[in-house]
TrEMBL record:
GO CC entries: nucleus
UDP-glucose/GDP-mannose dehydrogenase dimerisation domain span: 225-275
Catalysed reaction equations from the record: UDP-alpha-D-glucose + 2 NAD(+) + H2O = UDP-alpha-D-glucuronate + 2 NADH + 3 H(+)
Family per record: Belongs to the UDP-glucose/GDP-mannose dehydrogenase family.
Keyword Cell membrane: no
Any one GO biological process: glycosaminoglycan biosynthetic process
Protein name: UDP-glucose 6-dehydrogenase
Superkingdom, taxonomy of origin: Eukaryota
Binding site for substrate: 163-166, 231
Enzyme category, top tier: oxidoreductase
Length: 318
């Protein structure tokens, strides 16, 4: 019997990023079979019910449109990995609580476990896509794990970070301002290496999925490290802007100005591209714990000239 689908996608992790992202891909790509897998039976049962495990406006309608047709949720991880042409890794990367970097660095253990599982059960070559927010060069560690598979399979590793905002995840996915895909250039710490043909083909295959609804000019392709770092820097910039408006709130109190009005007026400047953040008390640790600390760790460890204060927490009173 001929396969009715042109492409099979598996997403490891049925959380806030994996679930909505795969639901939108399924909705926009009816010839692509999408399955989201997770170790938690409770989480999977919720995705297969009307009572979804997360709330996002518009998400229930998108899931209902595709569920059981080309969108599936399952705990049969091994079987779904075997079927897949593309495997997304979309798991939590919490801040480390012990060891080197405790309280600052991201714990990528879950990503490593996913890579080991992919290497263990795969029976064909695959494209593996980092969707989680990870430290720069995590793809190198993932690639090393995958290359240790016993069947001599070839894996291409891509970075495809998410840029979702809570409460607007579905509009953000339906009409993204950009889709970022980082491709393989040969695993090395050197900056400018020629892209491999296999890496180019893998990036193009993933871009082809998004091109079903995203204009090609909004699909950006970079090297792996640029993609991984871009996500961290984006989080850091957002945190800095929140820090700035918190500081401005003190000026507003002293002068009688209204912080909400000031932030709205400044945010309407097109040079900022998006609205200036609203006043948020005790800002960045709650908003971007992993994404904000990772660039600061890079600056501390690599000590590039001229950027020592680039990612300091702006005007924090701590």
């Amino acid at each position: 019997m001929a396969d009715e689908f042109d492409l099979h996608i598996c997403c490891m992790g049925a959380g806030y990023v994996g679930g909505p992202t795969m639901a939108v891909i399924a909705a926009k790509c009816p010839k692509v079979r999408v399955c989201v897998v997770d170790l938690s039976q409770k989480q999977i049962d919720a995705w297969n019910s009307p009572d979804l495990p997360i709330y996002e406006p518009g998400l229930p309608e998108v899931v209902a449109q595709c569920l059981g047709k080309n969108l599936f949720f399952s705990t049969d991880i091994d079987a779904e990995i075997k079927k897949a042409d593309i495997v997304f890794i979309s798991v939590n990367t919490p801040t480390k609580t012990m060891g080197i970097g405790a309280g600052r660095a991201a714990n990528v253990k879950n990503c490593e476990l996913c890579a080991r599982k992919i290497a263990e059960v795969s029976e064909s070559d695959k494209i593996v896509v980092e969707k989680s927010t990870v430290p720069v060069r995590t793809a190198q560690a993932v690639r090393r794990v995958l290359d240790c598979n016993e069947r001599g399979l070839k894996f291409q590793v891509l970075s495809n970070p998410e840029f979702l905002a809570e409460g607007t995840a579905i509009p953000d996915l339906m009409s993204p301002d950009r889709v970022l895909i980082g491709g393989v250039q040969g695993i090395s710490f050197k900056s400018h290496l020629p892209k491999t043909p296999e890496g180019i083909a893998a990036a193009e295959k993933l871009a082809g999925v998004y091109a079903n609804w995203v204009p090609r000019e909004q699909i950006l392709t970079t090297n792996l490290w640029s993609s991984e770092l871009s996500k961290l820097v984006a989080n850091a910039f957002l945190a800095q802007r929140v820090s700035s408006i918190n500081s401005i709130s003190a000026l507003c109190e002293a002068t009688g100005a209204n912080v909400s009005e000031v932030s709205r007026c400044v945010g309407m400047d097109e040079r900022y591209r998006k609205a200036f953040p609203k006043f948020v008390d005790r800002f960045w640790r709650q908003l971007f714990p992993e994404g904000y600390t990772e660039p600061r760790i890079l600056v501390r460890d690599l000590r590039p000239p001229g950027v020592r204060r680039l990612l300091e927490p702006g005007h924090s009173d701590e």
